[in-house]
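Example record

One chain of 479 residues, shown exactly as stored in the release files.
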Amino acid sequence: MERRTKIVATLGPATANSASISSLVRKGVDIFRINFSHGTSADHEDLFNMVRKESLSLKQEVAILADMQGPKIRVSTFKDGKVSLIKGNKFILDPDIPEKHGDENGVGLDYKNLHNDVSIGDIIIIGDGELRLQVEEISQKKIICLVLVSYEISNNKGINIKGGGISADAITPKDIKDMEHAVRLGADYIAFSFIRTASELEYCKSLLQDLGSKASIVAKIERVEATINAEDIISASDAIMVARGDLAIEVGASEVPGIQKKLTKIAKSLSKPVIVATQMMESMIDNSVPTRAEVSDVANAVLDGTDAVMLSAETAVGSYPETVITTVSKVCKSAEKYNVEFLENRNYPGCNHIEKQVAISAIQLANNVNAKAIVALTESGRTSLWMSRVRSGIPIYGLSRNIQSIRKMKLYRDVFPFYFDVTDSPYGLVNFNTVSFLEGLGFLVKGDYIVLTKGDYMGMEEGINAVKVLEVGNVRKVV
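Predicted structure tokens for this chain:
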């Protein structure tokens, strides 16, 4: 059984070389994430080039997701790199403390307006949630806090406010510069961090349009405000990422599973792909086997209907990147056996578009005739995206002559994209050549039924208006 859920792997020091990239593709990576929070522009360019080179060598397209850093809301640096804070002591956050001058009494801030975002009694969380400070006094830009938990804090740890409220712009000058670089390098997806409103995404879209880019926008949901504005944000995005790290810090870890399910359900209803991220297989950074809880976490994301699961440190700096991919792939395939949605008479949200109706009709028809496969001849990949929103248990082959569309389809669950130039076939041979192509790949045998969607005018982005049922071995050539 082919794996339907997609795998996103982050590149980093452990895998930033051609041999590792090639191996990860062969193990099953569909999308590589390049984190623009780390490295130089030259480093990012090297990674893009290596991915494209190895993809070409293996004759297997993979997508690249460029992940923007977002606002840098962090403490500055300490004299000795770190200090130990004692519960009950006072600690000052002050943007006027210079770099490398932090000590047990206080530290500087990269984000200069934190004092405007907090109130007396607020809980400031630093790092991954271990250090908690309660705001006792605000004196101009100084925030005087009470240490609630003894903890060792080191340089450049991230800052969150429990319950949200940080007002920093989601799109920074660095993000704009990095986005322009990612566009020049040919990113397929660009993820924007700490999104709070749909208007921020509309701004990102306008920037991409000005650059002439067709990259898709991924909204990272990791702020309280984003969960409140979820439907508008998802509508404005091309895909979302449930970024559970910062999200858990802001809303509390116990709230994240429910929010994850809610976001997945909304995104599915709006025909938007979902990536679930953060600590999927965290223990495999240092160990060759996952915990049972991690296996359940990945499986539950699959059962919820996510399109992709993402690995971060596990493949970026971990000791077993290839083993992680193999393990995640196995877990996904096991969970998918229990994740078939049986189609009944019901309404599909957002299906007032003719092409969407054709896509949904194809899924229903394929189930009724016990089809072996569903095939979408598509320029943009949209038809296969709409099909993939319904879990039918039938593989969807997205055939396109557009390389970028093929790469984008790598994110869509249940979709297996391949290069196929429909314009190479005379109109009367399109059905025959399509079936022959899939037979040649070993996906079909004589007697199988497939459901094919296409348009009257081949090679155009719009116009999918036909559904065909074809029997392999009995497709006529029409000359």
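Notes: The first strand starts at residue 6 and ends at 10.
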